[in-house]
Amino acid sequence: MSDIKKLDGKVPAGDIQDKWDNHRFNMKLVNPSNKRKYHVIVVGTGLAGASAAATLSELGYQVSTFCIQDSPRRAHSIAAQGGVNAAKNYPNDGDSVWRLFYDTVKGGDYRSREANVYRLAQVSNNIIDQCAAQGVPFAREYGGTLSNRSFGGAQVSRTFYARGQTGQQLLLGAYSAMMKEVGKGKVKSYTRREMVELVIVNGKARGIITRNVVTGEYEKFSADAVLLCTGGYGNTYFLSSNAMASNGSAAWKAYKKGAMFANPCYTQIHPTCIPQHGDFQSKLTLMSESLRNDGRVWVPKAKADKRAALDIPEEERDYYLEEKYPSFGNLVPRDVAARNAKQQSDLGKGVGSTGVAVYLDFADAIKRDGIESIRAKYGNLFEMYQRITDENPYEVPMRIFPAVHYTMGGLWVDYNLMTTVPGCFALGEANFSDHGANRLGASALMQGLADGYFVIPFTLGNYLAGEDLINQKVDTSAKEFDEALTESEARFTKLLGINGNKSVDSFHRELGVVMWDNVGMARTEESLKTAISKIKDIRADFWKNVKVTGTADGINIELEKANRVADFLELGELMARDALERKESCGGHFRDEYQTEDNEARRVDDEFCHVAAWEFTSVDKEPIRNIEELSFENVALSQRSYK
Amino acid sequence: MSSENLMTLNLKIWRQKNNKEKGEIVDYTIDGISPDASFLEMLDILNEKLIKEGSDPVAYDHDCREGICGMCSLMINGQAHGPEAETTTCQLHMRKYKDGDTIVIEPFRARAFPVLKDLMIDRQAFDDIIAAGGFVNVNTGNPQDANAILVPKENAELAMDAASCIGCAACVASCKNASAMLFVSAKVSQLALLPQGQVEADERVKNMVLKMDELGFGNCTNEAECEASCPKGISISNIARLNRDFLKAAVTSND
Q1: Which CATH class is domain A271-405?
Q2: Could you report the per-residue pLDDT of A438-456, keeping only the tens digit for each?
Q3: 3-state DSSP call for residue A529?
Q4: What CATH number is given for A479-609 in this structure?
Q5: Which of B2, B16, B41, B66 to mutate to test the interface with A (most CBs of A within 10 A)?
Q6: Any CB–CB contact under 8 A between B132 and chain A?
Q7: CA-CA-CA-CA torsion for B102, B106, B108, B114, nearest 10 degrees?
Q8: Chain A contact for B82, CB < 8 A?
Q9: Residue A334 falls in the annotated catalytic set
Q10: Which tens digit of pLDDT belongs to each residue from A49-92?
Q11: Is ipTM strictly over 0.95?
């Protein structure tokens, strides 16, 4: 165990309010006329990637962006519904930078880095100003000012929104800012490209290898820095609310090249998703948790009550969240709401044909506010629900169940968003730093845009100037590029050559079931050990029996999927391993062995008030668990309570 | 939940190896389809079967499967995104069909959108149009407080209606002229309705329309098929606004 490293988050000195301002002053600057001499690669064009690409290009850097979709506008940030938080305090209800900071640290169950969270709260207001200036059509009041709503367990109304399509509108804002730079010839946008390797020269990230998914060609790109803005790894579970192509491969390549992976076990299971309906199901659909502002969650009091919802009288219904958490009621944080739904279903009180669902009932809200008022607030969500389930939620309660939604873990980054590989940065969901063990609603959009618009433009310049990279140019003729390209090509050739008898998806589904059953909402030492051993078996079977049709040239979707699933089969094991070693419960990581008398998460601060940062050794050897100590100087560690 | 009514379907699917070779319609029969499956899950089941047989699965674009990313497309029995109003293909469910139905599935077709393989097309042209002017020219920095820009609620709502466009290209595929007017007008309208977009309004509309023409999209002849096929219900009143703004820009231009 003597190999354990203690990582330094490089948090600047001083009072928490002053850290970012001081740091901005202390960081080195790149001379304006020198910026164009630097080339920056941005992988992924969601909120973090598009905002970073636009801003860095505006500053004068040469930027190339890469995305796997046919357009940068399609990144999965687009699917975020509810909103984006900021500490504007427009409604005058007591919000402040400090309160947003405090709520986010507490909501993350004291497992995030305080200084990062404070900076996030500080720049949150700039994000709203920036997006408004871009023409993002936020919801407005009659007087023309911006509307706010309360969201995801917050007791102030700090969430800005654009109907139920906030992610779409913020992403289109960032995309248009980026396309403005594309039009000027300053950003080069590469679409339908998948990053298949990170290239390291003299210990620094200096480029990537991509596979052009239309032609099958491998391409080499060199740069002075590489920004990974590639989202999370929720699709390890096969079924999740993530888009079909969302994957963990870019981060995983970086991990295998020396970037440590932090807290992989912190996954968010979102409480309000449409339940699974069959074995052919390809993904789960989330409905904004804003629904919990008006919907009441309940199950029948009796077990295995098969009556239709409307036939169950009021006194035989168990509004378990209102009962158990009188002050937050249906608005408890996501992890608490999700875990309670699972508990009810495990007790045999689940509803619907599968018994794996709970009701979310709008009858009282409709009686109180009128059907039109509910339609105005949630019309699009109700339509979506009806389209998928064929049931009318204005008449019968919705059936909901938790589903994998977001991953708080990700590449370890320091305060400057740099991974443990110099020159390789991680932004947005791809990094780990701001949400601790649980992310609050409307905080993902805030973090993605904070990283891209307001953090990386400063910290990247500091790195470039500090390393004097201007005098260390590297181009794609360096042997490291050829080695990386050969390595990637060999991997794809190997996948095509196995020619077994099971489809890629069948392995992915198999992995998903193991993950959901054993590394899901409630984990035990036994389930995690089972998961590790089963995942190893599936991985071995995959490399023997997977069948990838077609050839390496041209479009081959099966080959693309196989490459991603191969990585999920390693990532899943690391998630289980991290969950096994973290012998406590916190936020989205719930170990049955560590709970309070009220079945709430019981942290073990003496032993686990730290970030676990995993270091790759080799696929078949155990990785090394390094740590970064967390200290809470401004928000005192306490047991979260939402009662 | 009517999972007992499993269906057998006849599929006629456009297969095309790449953008150089000619394509053709190929017949498939598929059984055991649940009415609760989505249209794309039905295609997944077909592909799973093709893979087992060792044949090449059907390539089609899709990603979020929540009707918001704009990646999915498909002409289904001649209708963009299929028969259900204001619904993307990924949100279409098989309960719209009955046992024994024949379904013809083709790619979106337009000169500006070459077929890449089977049902996948290249929509780069839409990105090019946005890069020509679909933005407010403001750099990241310290803009004024968001509430310093007041926007009448009605305008904010209309701008949001227009901004709902997902860039899927159903409008182009449904138009006999393969015009991109609905797509372009949605972006022009969103920004024309907001104070933030006023400064460059003339330049924007001119540049975007010029780019659209240059890329080989056709003219609008008021057939309104675009509006009928739009999965987000974008109104053709946006085209009227674009025409007004374009005319105004042309008349007042200094060029």
Answers
A1: alpha beta
A2: 999 899 999 999 999 999 9
A3: helix
A4: 1.20.58.100
A5: B66
A6: yes
A7: 180
A8: no
A9: yes
A10: 999 999 999 999 999 999 999 999 999 999 998 899 999 999 99
A11: yes
